[in-house]
Amino acid sequence: MIEFKQVGKYFNGKPAIEHLDLNIAKGEFTVLIGTSGSGKSTTLKMINRLIEHDQGKILFAGEEIHNFKPEELRRRMGYAIQSIGLFPHWTVEKNIATVPQLLKWPRAKIRDRVTELLELLHLDAEQFRHRFPHQLSGGQQQRVGVARALAANPDVLLMDEPFGALDPVTRASMQAEIVRIHRLSGRTLVLVTHDIDEALTLADRIILLDNGKVVQQGTPQQMLLQPATPFVRAFFGQDDIGIRLLGLGTAGSHARPGEQLPGIAVAASLSLREALSIFIARQAEQLPVAGEDGKVVGVLHFRDLIKPVKGEG
Ligand SMILES: Nc1ncnc2c1ncn2[C@@H]1O[C@H](COP(=O)(O)OP(=O)(O)OP(=O)(O)O)[C@@H](O)[C@H]1O
């Protein structure tokens, strides 16, 4: 879907990106992570030509991005950033409708889409659609920014630290929302973050950049279990690797199916990392696990936490 071939970008003669090869498959959730100044945002912005690359080739759907008009690229690629970039004199509705209006969607269709997106992002449509950005909190503005990026069902969603200003609870719920949107729509997603846990939770594939170069790319499990260099190992926090691996599995995936146990059940979607916390807080060695309908589907045993998570091993 998106391919970089030996891409380079220079600012004032200094390389920000050098010899970058990337291949982002259709429908994949890719996370770019790295130290500050490693070139994550530059890489993302080169995809929709907010920054033009100086060397190499960038292909979108098999064609060089220079063959697309920048407006066309931006219509096909939603873009959400931490600093939001909402138009201050436009209402929430008008902001979200930016691309649908460019595409001349009928009014009623735009209105319905705005309602749908506000609700998807847990903002009451009637309460928020007529507000202006300065009448929203930072986190609400960020959510409107994500809604705007999604508005015209773009093929690709580019996100640069989109959850940066959110409190941990809203952040976790937005992350879950994005994972759900990704699963439902099969859209290609590229997200920049400096938050390791966010990268591990969201990504199908992580690309770790340092100094304008890819140090390693792979699944979250590969990054944790097969770090290519001491830098990768240190970046993912060698002391926390076990805990982070637990973050990749769920109570549902590790429960022994069919077993029953009285007591307050934990959700099947709970991460094993959170389950560990509950084991310790309850001083228990077994936890009943319930599905979405509240029925117990099995029992999670403390000793099973060390079993490999999906895709590992
Ligand atoms: N417009 C610009 N003019 C000059 N240098 C720039 C410009 N934009 C980025 N750079 C430089 O390019 C390098 C990569 O910047 P970039 O913003 O892509 O990094 P990043 O990994 O996203 O960093 P951070 O996590 O701090 O946001 C940095 O050294 C930065 O100073």
TrEMBL record:
Keywords for this protein: ATP-binding, CBS domain, Nucleotide-binding, Transport
Domain of life: Bacteria
ATP-binding among keywords: yes
Keyword hit for Nucleus: no
Residues annotated as domain CBS: 255-313
Residue ranges constituting the ABC transporter domain according to the UniProt record: 2-236
GO-annotated biological processes: quaternary ammonium group transport
Single GO MF descriptor: ATP binding
Classification via InterPro entries: AAA+_ATPase (IPR003593), ABC_transporter-like_ATP-bd (IPR003439), ABC_transporter-like_CS (IPR017871), CBS_dom (IPR000644), CBS_dom_sf (IPR046342), P-loop_NTPase (IPR027417)
UniProt cross-references to Gene3D superfamilies, sorted A to Z: CBS-domain (3.10.580.10), P-loop containing nucleotide triphosphate hydrolases (3.40.50.300)
A Pfam entry, by short name: ABC_tran
Family: Belongs to the ABC transporter superfamily.
The protein, known as: Osmoprotectant transport system ATP-binding protein
